UniProtKB/TrEMBL annotation:
Keyword rRNA processing in annotation: no
InterPro entries for the chain: Gate_dom (IPR011642)
Coiled coil location: none
Key words, A-Z: Membrane, Transmembrane, Transmembrane helix
Ranges that cross the membrane: 35-57, 77-99, 119-138, 158-183, 234-254, 260-280, 345-368, 388-407, 419-440, 452-473
Organism superkingdom: Bacteria
Signal peptide: none
Annotated ranges, domain Nucleoside transporter/FeoB GTPase Gate: 160-258
Pfam families reported in the protein's UniProt record: Gate (PF07670)
UniProt protein name: Nucleoside recognition domain protein
């Protein structure tokens, strides 16, 4: 996304650090200090991002609790704050592109934040225009309607602001103190042969599963910037493993009136998700992504390869302690957390406003998604799904927003059809009002047309699996 690539030097330094740490003997890093530096922050990170807690009868994670708590405190001011942030981002981007003030372009972080490509500069400006029109409820109703810009600004953007704030601040607890090295090493034997991904990607998946897909996108983007993932790996993880949380799955199945079927529903979603995760990355466009790191260098081997004489557990422990030993200054960790939060808030929120609103406008005011869904009628009839014509209307509309298929399915009589629509909408994963816009606004190397093609492939692969399970259940 950025014209300059300040991550390259950071990546080269990380590679040097990894190469040097792999030559360390266990006794070189085994100390009480390193053990505590590994365990305490990592356990706090696991608690915040990956530990399910029950709040008001719903499963969530502590980071989400903090985000919703802040959202409640902000109340209506949250919308004003988000509007200000998006406008500020667009103005600073224009100032940087047109005037190029030295205080910004000579500062690595500020330059990476505001000196973006022309396409992203335009996107931020469009997001600012949309948010101003929506905030003041002026201009075309198609933009500020409660089903388009109003939905993004009032319901989604303030929550994302709070999630980005806490997730960005606390993310270094997961990635900087050895947890990913430990998990990555122990999970390599599963993730490499099954998904052709580094073992550490399992953490991205689990954090999304119990928490929020936006957390998975944030983690994936940062891991790519730091040189842990190649272009292909980052694109695959971002479009495959930033899965929908249990909480949102409960909302979807409740919307179609099938709460009693939640367990078979979520089991079907998991099964279809695994099948899609195995198949779709082996097809274009994901299979065409290069195995190159952010600095253009190719992967020459897996960073979690186990040396002779080591077990996955012992070597993972060694790498975790070696990674923890590199943390010398708490101020650097705090600074990185602040940078993470600022980058996501100023960089991604304008994209969500621009692309999310545009996608919802297409869904609300044009027949495009209905037309695109028509070819699914023969497939649905072949799979013996009742009300195939009505169901086809929901097949592609989920690209705009994941919740739209469930809303459209409410009027369908067949429980089996509503079940299929609900499960498919969750499995499709990529929707432009949030995850798609987040991916485009992040450093993950994917384009809009690629996201739409991946969305269609996920739909085609998942639908037969979901239909088969539905016939077994109903």
């Amino acid at each position: 996304m950025n014209e300059a690539n300040p991550q390259t030097q950071k990546y080269d330094k990380r590679v040097e650090a990894v190469n040097s740490e792999q030559t360390l003997e266990l006794q070189d890093v085994k100390s009480t200090r390193n053990l505590l530096m590994f365990l305490l922050p990592s356990l706090i990170g696991v608690f915040l991002f990956m530990t399910p807690v029950s709040v008001n009868g719903s499963l969530t994670i502590p980071v989400a609790v903090l985000a919703k708590g802040l959202l409640g405190q902000l109340d209506s001011f949250g919308v004003t704050l988000v509007t200000t942030v998006i406008v500020f981002s667009a103005v600073m981007t224009l100032v940087t592109k047109l005037i190029k003030p030295g205080v910004i372009v000579n500062h690595p972080f500020m330059n990476s934040l505001f000196n973006v490509t022309p396409a992203w500069a335009v996107t931020r400006v469009v997001g600012a225009v949309f948010v101003v029109l929506t905030f003041f409820a002026v201009g075309p109703e198609a933009i500020h309607s409660g089903n388009t810009g109003g939905l993004v600004l009032n319901d989604l953007a303030p929550l994302l602001f709070c999630v980005f704030l806490f997730a960005g601040l606390f993310l270094p607890l997961l990635v900087n103190f050895g947890l990913l090295e430990m998990v990555g090493t122990t999970m390599t034997k599963l993730m490499r042969p099954v998904f052709n991904l580094p073992g550490r990607s399992a953490v991205d998946c689990f954090a999304s599963w119990v928490g929020d897909g936006s957390v998975g996108v944030l983690m994936t983007s940062k891991q790519y910037e730091q040189g842990h993932y190649t272009e292909r790996e980052a694109a695959v993880i971002g479009t495959t493993f930033s899965i929908v949380s249990i909480t949102f799955s409960l909302v979807v199945i409740g919307t179609v009136g099938l709460e009693a079927y939640f367990l078979p529903f979520f089991g079907t979603v998991c099964l279809a998700g695994i099948v899609v995760a195995i198949v779709v990355p082996r097809l274009p466009p994901l299979s065409n992504k290069k195995d190159l790191f952010v600095n253009g260098k190719a992967r020459t081997g897996d960073e979690e390869v186990i040396p002779a004489g080591e077990t996955t557990l012992s070597y993972g422990y060694k790498l975790a302690l070696a990674r923890a030993s590199q943390v010398k200054n708490a101020g650097d960790v705090v600074r990185e957390g602040v940078h993470n939060a600022t980058d996501m808030i100023l960089g991604v929120l304008p994209v969500v406003m621009a692309i999310g609103t545009a996608g919802l406008m297409v869904a609300e005011y044009t027949p495009l998604f209905s037309i695109l869904g028509t070819p699914f009628v023969p497939l649905l009839e072949l799979l013996q799904i009742p009300d195939a014509a009505a169901a086809s209307q929901t097949m592609v509309v989920g690209f705009a927003d994941m919740f739209l298929p469930a809303i459209l399915a409410e009027g369908i009589n067949s429980e089996m059809t509503r079940f299929v629509i609900a499960a498919l909408s969750v499995t499709q994963l990529i929707y432009m009002s949030e995850i798609g816009a987040l991916l485009l606004g992040s450093k993950v190397p994917v384009k809009l047309w690629e996201l739409f093609l991946i969305f269609l492939l996920r739909t085609l692969v998942a639908l037969p699996v979901i239909a088969g399970m539905a016939h077994l259940i109903f």
